[in-house]
Amino acid sequence: MVSDIQIKNELLQVLKNRLMSIKPDVNITKEWIKNAYKPYVKEHEENLILHSKELKNFLDKCNYDPIERKRLKALRSSAALMFNTFVEIEFNTNLVFKNQVYNHFEPEFGNCCLKGGRGRAKIDALLKSQDRKSIMILEGKMFEHYDGEKAFLSETESYFDRTRYSEHLSSETIEAFVELFHEIKKHIENRLFTRFDIQQMAKHLLSIVNNLDSENKPFKKAENIYLIGVSWLASKTSIIDQINSADRVKKIDGIIEEEARLGVALLNKVLENTNLNKIKVSFTDYSTFIEKSNLSNHPHFDYLNKRYL
Prior knowledge:
The protein is an alpha/beta fold.
């Protein structure tokens, strides 16, 4: 059977070739990180859409810590994928998705899930509509699902402790989330979640619920909040025709989609049971998100298409 390492190596080689076709002088090196060599560029502008001083200033002001800024230089970076997809919305174009117009992009938006600043959940992309009544919160994944099967994280057990939740949450809401995390642990142990990161999505959902009524928060005026998992699935792109491990990739991508359906159902059940009707959770692959939006009409679509599609 084709290994996960072989899949990643093949995909990274194609992505490297695609980037070099756009930027022939790009400086790509390999760095040893978490027991593997991973390709990085030397400068941010080699991996990100930073064609103007305005965009470079925007990057400087973004809420990336030093480690996250380094990861933006990785060819497999989901944060870079989200940045490149949406950064032009902040300056030059609007995003239309499901009949709603979005004109504000905020990357790496962070919220705390538990008391005392614990369990900080960082969102890859937060998009606000023109009237600020709709918010999309996107959790992007590019290569994480090709890294191997997920395990239940010991840190997630802190979400079993009811005393760690915010005081302004109702006992009903706290109980619903405690039960959710217990159910997630059970499903992971039963291997119902092996590729889809349900733990992170659940934490993002809790961070949103924590901030629904907070002053000076982006959720305050929102009438609709959409938490969307967006995974880059190679089988949905033309890259699938350029690798030898296509069959294995298609199988993994199918597993991700199946697990995502289960995960979305679990999260929406919590919202239904607690009457948090203004929030909706969903999942889509990256290519489908592009197709359902107006991004294909944007000037920077050619760049996205050549690199990721």
